[in-house]
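G., before I forget:
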Amino acid sequence: MATAGTSGETTSDWSLLARIAQRDEVALSALYDRYSALVFSTAKRILHGTGEAEEILQDIFYQVWETAERFDPERGSLAGWLLVTARNRAISKLRRKRQSADELDENGVSLTLEIEARAAQNVLLDKVRSVMQSLPDGQREALECAYFEGMSHTEIAEKTGQPLGTVKTRIRSAMETLKKVLR
Amino acid sequence: MRNGGHIREEELELLALGGLPDDEAAAVQAHVAACGECAKKLAESRGSAALLGFTAKQERPAGTVKAELMARVRSSSEREEHYAWPMWRQNKGDGETAEYVTSRRKNGWLNWVLAPAAAALALVSLALSWQNRRVSEALEKQRLATETLLHDRERTSKLVAVLAAGDTVTVKLAPTGETVGSGVVKYNGRMGMVAYSVQLPVASAGKSYQMWLIPVKGVPISAGMMEKGAPSLGPVWMAEVPANTETKGFAITLEPAGGMPQPTGPKVLAGAS
């Protein structure tokens, strides 16, 4: 069933995905090695616990195994999808919400950066952290409340005591700064 | 929320971040589902939001998670094989066979008798399973054929009733533009039935002809599509319309495949009652 493996650092995500669609376990293993830390860390950051984060991690990669043929490289980034799906599922668990409303389709995340190599991931990691640290406290707090705690802008306004308009402006400004990383 | 018919970028960013309340998120998602431009912008915003995952403290999961995942994957693969070869897997995995294998070691002489018998039994089981599937498929085909016959009989009865009724009116359809064609409509208002036969060129890709009853009062009423799968009896199409509708006539328009609630395309044939 499994075919000979290739270097996880050089094979593209889409090549791995094509092999996974052909039921190649070695390719799934390589993709897991590539992104499991990112997916797991995102889920754990939200849930503050290891057990549920591991459950999400396993479920997401099992979904990749089951539905690999449905991903379309023309329409989005696999790495982006993995990260955003991990976030959404963790938030659903955190808030005990049904997942259906938050679930993304397979191609709904556009991430133009190449982060298949470990080195590229490390470079991006430093870059994003540096950008986040450069943000004013209010902007960073608003972003983190929304992304890692699943709070709506109204809830953030209540929590921070800021007017709703201010919260929206802060999020907008922070997102603009973040987008510069992608350019 | 809207900006020239599109969702404002800040709303899309909030949705990407998960910062929109559920009701607003649902409204934005409904628009995005039908708007390619907004869907593209949302995907970009999600890409930016995904970067926040990098700010989490990076940790490697325990090795057992991967081991469990791969075991789950292997198990699913085995289930697929099981589905493809049910008899083989059942014989390979069940307790009796295991017992047989154990006793085989104890009773070497008996194996010479039982091994061929077990192989023959497996072959017979396989043959019976194959035969059983063939019989099931044949029965399913027969059931579908019977259903089709019953539907055809019902349609035939209705068509005969429309054609034979004294109060059925006949409307001849003639071209209204450049399209060459003709048609005849039999309409019985009391029964609320329309039957028609039409000669027209094949509709262009993605289009279908749609028949309309033009009432004396109110808007046109669809009297069916002329496309594959629509109720028909050979070359005669049939449709039910509200009973006792006073009609001025009938018309056929060219519409997107699947039909429209009201005419939108060019009228190709028409006739007055």
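Helices of chain B lie at 9-17, 22-34, 36-50, 63-84, 86-93, 95-106, 108-164. Residues 82-107 of chain B have pLDDT under 50 and may be disordered.

More on Monday.
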